[in-house]
């Protein structure tokens, strides 16, 4: 057990610049190539709905469950006051959620704790799994969790570091694309029950401005993540 704990808490060697850049390029391909993106986007949905659920719990709402769908949409249901700051915070959390998770991961990686990051992710996925209320959602989280567990348990230190960087880049780069897709669907007359439109009804602030807030937060997280990655010269 001590060896196991030491493995989690030990600082891993600093990754090479080639690894950091290479995993960033690989993540960009997973996002930019549409046939792959249709599947990898489910990771963004997991993070999106997880962020809703986390904030719902933090503001004292009763979390009823989370559903993930095969079209990469999802819904998080919580009980409580339908208006007010708590509900606004829950709706605000979704689209920035993947970027903020990615930024937190980038911070952990910048301190050299790739293994601790992967185990922390596994714990988060187990907690999320307890809130899933449909079969596809269970399947999605279980498959993603199995991949993370496999890398964490059997992967070599270099494989673990590579996977951790790939996942971090993916979250940071995918979050802005999800915001762009939100606005595209709204422009085509869809997504009228989106987070931005629900925020408009609660606050009176135009939905487009909320989309802008989502976009600015995700881009700021990406910029800070790039800075922490060491890609840019100090």
From TrEMBL:
This is M50 family peptidase. It comes from the Bacteria. InterPro entries: Peptidase_M50B-like. The chain crosses the membrane at residues 15-33, 88-107, 113-130, 137-156, 162-180, 207-228. Keywords: Membrane, Transmembrane, Transmembrane helix. It comes from Kribbella speibonae.
């Amino acid at each position: 057990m001590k060896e196991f704990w030491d493995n989690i808490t030990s600082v891993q060697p600093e990754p090479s610049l080639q690894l950091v850049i290479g995993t960033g390029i690989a993540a960009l391909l997973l996002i930019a190539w549409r046939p792959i993106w249709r599947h990898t986007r489910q990771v963004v949905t997991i993070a999106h709905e997880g962020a809703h659920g986390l904030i719902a719990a933090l503001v004292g709402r009763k979390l009823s469950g989370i559903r993930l769908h095969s079209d990469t949409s999802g819904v998080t249901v919580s009980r409580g006051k339908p208006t007010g700051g708590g509900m606004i915070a829950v709706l605000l959390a979704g689209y920035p959620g993947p970027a903020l998770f990615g930024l937190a991961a980038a911070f952990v990686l910048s301190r050299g704790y790739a293994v601790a990051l992967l185990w922390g992710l596994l714990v988060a996925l187990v907690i999320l799994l307890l809130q899933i209320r449909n079969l596809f959602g269970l399947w999605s989280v279980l498959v993603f969790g199995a991949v993370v567990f496999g890398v964490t348990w059997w992967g070599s230190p270099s494989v673990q570091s590579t996977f951790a960087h790939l996942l971090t880049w993916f979250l940071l780069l995918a979050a802005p694309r999800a915001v762009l897709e939100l606005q595209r669907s709204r422009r085509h007359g869809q997504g009228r029950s989106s987070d931005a439109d629900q925020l408009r009804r609660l606050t009176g602030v135009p939905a487009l401005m909320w989309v802008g807030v989502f976009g600015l937060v995700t881009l700021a997280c990406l910029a800070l993540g790039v800075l922490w990655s060491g890609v840019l010269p100090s």
